[in-house]
Structure formats: structure tokens, C-alpha cells
Amino acid sequence: MRAILEGSKAVAEAVRLCRPNLVCAYPITPQTHIVEELSRMVAEGSLDAGFVLAESEFGAASVVLGGSAVGGRAYTATSSQGLLLMVEVIFNIAGLRLPVVMTCANRAVSAPINIWNDQQDSVSIRDSGWIQLYVEDNQEAVDTHIQAFRIAEELMIPVMVCMDGYVLTHTVEPVDLPEQEEVDRFLPPYRPKYRLDPDDPFTMGAMVGPEAYMETRYHLHMDMMEARSVIRRVAEEYAESFGRYHGGLVEAYDVEGADVVLVSMGSLLGTMREAVEELREEGLKVGLLKIRCFRPFPKEAIHDALKGVGVVGVIEKDVSLGLEGTLCSEMRAAFCGEESPEISSFVMGLGGRDITVEEIKQVARELAADPACRVEFRGLKEELLRGDEG
Amino acid sequence: MDKFSVYAARLVEKGEYFASGHRACQGCAEALAVRLVMKALGRDTIVAMATGCMEIVSSPLPTTAWEVPWIHVAFENASAVITGCESGMKAMMRKGKLPPKKINFVAMGGDGATADIGMGQLSGALERGHDFVYVCYDNEAYMNTGIQRSSATPWGASTTTSPAGKLSKGQRTQKKDLPKIAIAHNIPYVATACPSFPFDLMEKVKKAAAVEGPAYLHILSVCPTGWRIPSEEAIKYGRLAVNTCVFPLYECLYGKYRLTYRPNPILPVREYIEGQGRFRHLTPEDIEAIQERTTAEYEKLVKLSEEV
Questions:
Q1: For B176, which DSSP code?
Q2: Of B68, B72, B92, the CB nearest to A205
Q3: For residue range A33-91, what is the model confidence (pLDDT) as tens digits?
Q4: Running DSSP on this structure, what letter comes out for residue B49?
Q5: What is the pLDDT of residues A238-288, one digit of tens each?
Q6: Which helix H or strand E contains A2, and what residues bound it?
Q7: Residue ranges of domains in chain A, CATH in brackets
Q8: Beta B215-220 vs B168-169: how paired, if at all?
Q9: Distance CA B108, CA B114 (A)
Q10: Which residues of A touch B67 (CB under 8 A)?
Q11: By C-alpha distance, which of B41, B135, B119, B128 is closest to B87?
């Protein structure tokens, strides 16, 4: 069904189509419209699920953990400070191998408090053991949520679908919503490998000492590595069933023979595509690499996509303070011990600062003129950087 | 109950759902309380337990003392986790994905998990009206990490973070009244209990499980290690806490207070305080102050229980 929907409502529709048993969330801007829409569905009877409005994000994460532990398909959504408040439980959900699906409406992190979009929140918890998928537009958000439950339940690893706050959550776009029967065929009911059941008692979350802790972490790591093939396969199967493909782990665009390749995650790719087209018209051969899957990190897929490319610029809306953009660090590490392109970090768009087509073009032009690897903030206001004398 | 005690023992559930072989300290009254609570709940129970002594001693991989499904996540969220279990399972039963069945959903935590770090989540879970039981095992300090004070530590108790000294009488604040906080949520059932009074305790557990909606149980769990008493005297100190009215046994069913045990005679608080290493530094005047407060609090409770 073709519908014109706000991103948040489209996500809520996708979640409903996945028939969750338990939904629990706590409102935070810019995730609120997702929770409001799910509340409305429950109130009208179009969504039959346990529905809990928690007293905090920490509580919400704990509630979906409990719902998943008894074998229910569980969903939550949050953003920014909410995600950070959840962090202890986030690690536990992954460590207990519970296939919870979460939407992160990406937003900047305090202080200073800022409700606008960047990706510092989810990037900051990359090591928690959750799969992280970043979406470019609302159609991809719908499709990725349906894929997320399949991936999570197959691997018993939680999945976070990251969508840029406001840019996607509050933007009205036409989307194709799949039919219920199609989704049911693609996503069968969740059959947990283990669950809390009085007829078959099971101790979950036991204390593990130095004699076995490391092995449990190793298993999760290896399964995360394995997840790359599952994520890719599920995206392909989704394309067969629904006719839409947004890339498996990464998506390369005009990379072959490119002088410069720009890399990013999320909705910025839309702006970057425009910039690349204009640059090509100007005669500069620029390609794009979209990182759809940030965890597990798709090292091989990146190698394959960037074969023969000499200059890479990573534009990202997060920064590892004291180093550079996090995605850039990981891109560089991906080439460890091999011939690597020059990879530069461009930190842009923090706290909702607009990133223009012209700024992206400028980054590409400068990299073409001087490929030396560097770390730069772009779009800073000079007048705000000056000291007292300014 | 006294005159029936010989027979009453035979009426107790024989099954054990908290198995022996766990690693609690000698004389741990909290382990005894857990055992009694589990006997009263029976096998159709799911337990979410907060981080703390009981979690640590009962679940070291590859062993477990739990004969029922049990989950531990973190220090502060047992109440939220169990409400997720309850909501998820009830939804699946409603949707025909699981056979309908009465299951006891039970969260357990110590006084630190309940009065301090998990207070917000407990309040949220009670307010939302889930059908679950929260059991607080109160040993009056963070015993698991080495006897640090909590907000449930009584005034005057010396702990490793409220030590008695030249400038200190130990804990400077009065014990946070958790049962009253639970009652303020207008939930169906709140009760206090102590494993030194096992039948009273088990009756209350059964009531808590039977009522529709949230129930809160506050169980005084004597900790020989932390209270610095001989390990064989845990039961005695539990009785003294109740018989001096330092820890009255009462319940509040749908807002109606009832003292389930009235000590007669009421023993002087001194008998409870003396002999506990954590109170060793207190002067007779200090003990008198505790006595006055204890009497006043008990009288308030008697009045509440006489309201029609």
C-alpha cells in the first residue's frame, strides 16, 4: 500500500506489521511520534500487544528485556539522552542474547542540551553488542525494521535501527507499506531458543567468573562477525519478496574509477547523492559509499567497494572527542596491514547544523586537489570561535 | 500460632525451590527468607532478582540454586524486568501463543536495590498496576559489597561508609520507611515479615501472590556478618527486632492496616541493640532516643490498625 506518511508513523506501521508481543517506551524528542502512534494503535485496537509506558528509558529497556526473556517479540524506541540512560540495560540485552529491536531516532547528546539531529548517541554505544543499521530514507526505515526482527531472532542478537531525528522522523514522504500477509510470510512467529518458563526452569543472567566470562564475550563477538552474512542474506531475501533493496552492509554508488569517494551513514546520503551528480557534471569523478551496517563493521565489504580508490573523505555527524570522527577511525582500521587509500575525517552537522550540497562539494574538491589525510570540522561559525577580543 | 506450631510444620509445602548448596554466609537469615518465600510461592513462579548477596550466592556458573525460572539483569531494575515478563507473557496468553496459566511474577532485591538505586523503577512498576510481587530482603546495608550504609540502615548503625568515630555516631539518618512508600501507591497488598516468624511470613507471601495487582513485601533479614553478631543468633535477633517493636509485623490489605503479631510483653529496645557489634558505640542516652522513636512509631501503627 502506497501511503504518504511521516517517518515516525511509517515506522510505527512497520512495527505493527511485525506483530510484536510487547512494546514499551518512554517519550523523548524526536522519538515521541513513534510512541504516540503505537499508543493510538493500541487504543484503537489495531495493535494487539502488551503495551507498557515506563517511568524512564532505563525502565523501558528493562521491560522489553523481560518481555523478550519470556519469549515475546519485543520493541522499543528512544533517542539521545534516553539511549544513554538505557546503556546498562543495552549491554545486558546483548549479553543475554535477547532479540529486542529498537529504533534510535538519532539526536545530539548533552551538554549543551540539544534536541536536533546528529549521530553521537548510537555511535557512542557501538561496543554494546547490538547490530546497528542506519537508514537513508523513510522507505528504508520501514523495510529495515521488518528485516531487523528477522535478523535479531535468527541470531539472538538485538538490532538497533538508527534513523536521523527530524530529518527522517518528522518528514512526510511517500512510502510503500507491505501487506500483512507478505510480512507474515517473510517474518514467521518468533520461536525462542530459550525462555523463562515454569515448566522448564532456566537460570538466565548467572554470575560468571574469570573461568568462563571471556568465552561468552568471544561467542557474542564471533556471532556478530557471522551476522554480516545474515544481514546481507536477509536484505536479499527482502528484495526478492518485496522488490526493494537498500544495500546489504554497504552500498557503493559511482565508485568505480572515482577520483574521490565520500562515505557516510544515514539520511545525509541523500544530500550527498545530489552533490555527487553536480560534481560529475562539473567533471570531477566522485563516488559514494553508504555504510548501512555500522555494527558489525563491514570491513570486507568496504575493501571490495573501495578497490583501487585513492582518496576517501568520511563525512559524519559524530566525533570521538580527542581523536576524529568515529566512522573515519574504523575505516582506517579496516585497511590495517593493507594498501590503504588516504582517508580523511570531516566532522559536520553536529547538533542539527545544516549540511549543504555546496559544503559537500567543497570537501570533494579539496580532497581532489590535496588528498593528504586530515581531520577537520566543517561548517563552524568563525564568529563564535573567536575569544573575548572578537 | 504458638500452640499449633508442632502441627503447623506439617502443613508447610515440602518442595524446595531455592536449593541448598548456595554460597550464603553461615547463619544468613536472608537465605532462609528466600527459601520460605519460594516454598510459599511454589513452582509456577518466575523470579527476577536484583544484583546483591542473594544473586551472587545463588547463581555462580555452572551452578544454580533456583528450581524455578530466574533472571538477573542489573542492580536497579528487577521490578521493571518482571513487569516486562508479566506484560509479555500475558499478551502471549491473550493472543493464544501460550496456554493460559496462573504464574507468580516476583521481583526480589535487597534494601539497597529497593530503597536506593531501584526506587524509581519500583515506583513505576507499582504505579502501572502490574500483577506482580516485589520482595525486599532488608538486611539494612549494602552487605554484598562489604557493609556500606544504605538509606534503610537504621540511625546509629556503624557501617564501613558510616563508621562510628570521634565525630560520628554511625548512620546519621533514620531508616527510610519503604512499606509506607509502597502503601502510598495505593496497591492492594503491603506487608512486613521476618523469617524468625516463618508461618506469618509464608501466609503473607501467599496473600501477596493471590491479590490481583502489585503487592510489596518487606522482609527483615538479619545479617550476622554485617550486624556483627554470632552466626547462630540470626533467628534470635529477628525475634528481638519484632518483640521490641523495632520491626513490627503488619499488613495493609486494600488500605486496611492490621498488626499480624502484637508482642506481649514488648521488650526494651536495649535488648535488641546490645550485643550487635554495629551498635556497640552507642551510649545509654542514644539507646533511649531509639527507644522513644520506636515507641512513637509503634503507637502510630497501632492507631492505624485500629481505624475502621
A1: P
A2: B72
A3: 999 999 999 999 999 999 999 999 999 999 999 999 999 999 999 999 999 999 999 99
A4: E
A5: 999 999 999 999 999 999 999 999 999 999 999 999 999 999 999 999 999
A6: strand A2-6
A7: 2-242 (3.40.50.970), 250-386 (3.40.50.920)
A8: unpaired
A9: 9
A10: 201
A11: B128
Mean pLDDT score of chain A = 97
Which residues are paired to A312 by β-bridges? Answer: A261, A343
Hey, are the CB atoms on A50 and B88 less than 8 Å from each other? yes
Tell me the average pLDDT across A212-224. Answer: 97
CATH of B2-306, one of 3.20.20.70, 3.30.565.10, 3.40.50.970, 3.40.470.10: 3.40.50.970
Quick one: which of A302, A279, A298 has its CA closest to A289? Answer: A302
Distance CA A227, CA A223 (A): 6
pLDDT of residue B307: 84
Which of A23, A203, A213 is the best residue to mutate to test the B interface, defined by the most B CB atoms within 10 Å of its own CB? A203
Question: Which of B73, B82, B88 is nearest residue A74 as measured by Cβ atoms?
Answer: B88
- Domain boundaries in chain B? 2-306
- pLDDT score recorded for residue A386: 83
Q: What is the largest CA-CA distance in chain A?
A: 74
Dihedral angle, C-alpha A75, A80, A86, A92, nearest 10 °: 70
Q: Which residues pair with A313 in a beta bridge?
A: A262, A344
Q: Would you say the ipTM is above 0.85?
A: yes
Prediction pTM value: 0.96
Alpha-carbon gap, residue B113 to A110, rounded angstroms = 28
